[in-house]
Amino acid sequence: MRTWVELYRSHRDSRACGDKAVDAIRQVLRAMGEHEHSVFRANVQAHFNPKKSPHRDVQAFQLGDDKGEPIQLKKLSKAEQERVHLSEARLSILLLWNRARAHLHALTVMVQSKRKVGSDWTVAVHLPDDREGENPRMDRDGCGACSHAALHCHVGPTVGTHPKVRVPMPPLAPFEVVEWVMSQVVPSDAFEPAPWDRVMAALKQESVKPRANGREREM
Predict the structure, then answer these.
(1) CA 58 to CA 219: how far, in whole Å?
(2) 8 Å CB contact between 43 and 64
(3) How far is 197 from 205, CA to CA, in rounded Å?
(4) 76 domain residue, yes or no
């Protein structure tokens, strides 16, 4: 059980991200929009805007309208289009944070799409609303942290299609969730936040550990 306790704790701790979460998401959207074959409209980051909220201290931010932001897959290069198995897709982002506490209450990053063969396909990452007044069980849905981790992902025809599988996610920041979701939609170097050459370089650098006397050795 220790693994799931630690995962739940890490999800809970990651909520302390403050208003920087909004700016970080906008930076990711801007970078994707500036790509040579951008799949978003110009200045897409400017469309991640606050919504009206009935709660004074809670601010909601949403990308585009309720249907999400169109992902213009046909603007990709020919080689990239061959890697994509979707004919159309829309990205939705909804973020709730408490301005006074600099606390992330909830996050949803979702792509609703159609595959080239005609069937529906959805990928959605959820961090449930932890306000007890809005959700009596807060972020403790399901039977436990294994079957329903706080930060989790759904993949299937729709979010509600049974069996509803909830895949546990690591404690990613909101902008990292956006990067991960887009990397599943457009599996190319331009949309991959952790290319293997950088990963291997980082692992190699970490393998060099300092000795107690200050010298370095290869692990």
Answers:
(1) 48
(2) no
(3) 12
(4) yes
Asked if the structure places residue 207 within a domain, the reply is no
Q: What is d(CA 64, CA 45) in angstroms, rounded to the nearest whole number?
A: 10
Give residue 211's pLDDT: 58
> For 163-174, what is each residue's pLDDT tens digit?
988 999 999 999
Report the DSSP beta bridge partners of residue 208: 218
Q: Residue 60 falls within a domain, yes or no?
A: yes
pLDDT in tens, 108-125: 999 999 999 999 999 999
Kindly report the pTM of this predicted structure.
0.91
Domain that holds residue 146: 2-194
User: According to the model, what pLDDT value does residue 93 have?
Assistant: 98
Q: Return the pLDDT at 213.
A: 58
Task: Indicate the number of domains in the chain.
Answer: 1
- Round to whole Å and give the CA distance between 31 and 38: 9
* Sequential DSSP letters for 39-104: SS-TTGGGGEEEE--SSSSEEEEEESSTT-EEE-GGGS-HHHHHH--EEEEEEEEEEEEETTTTEE
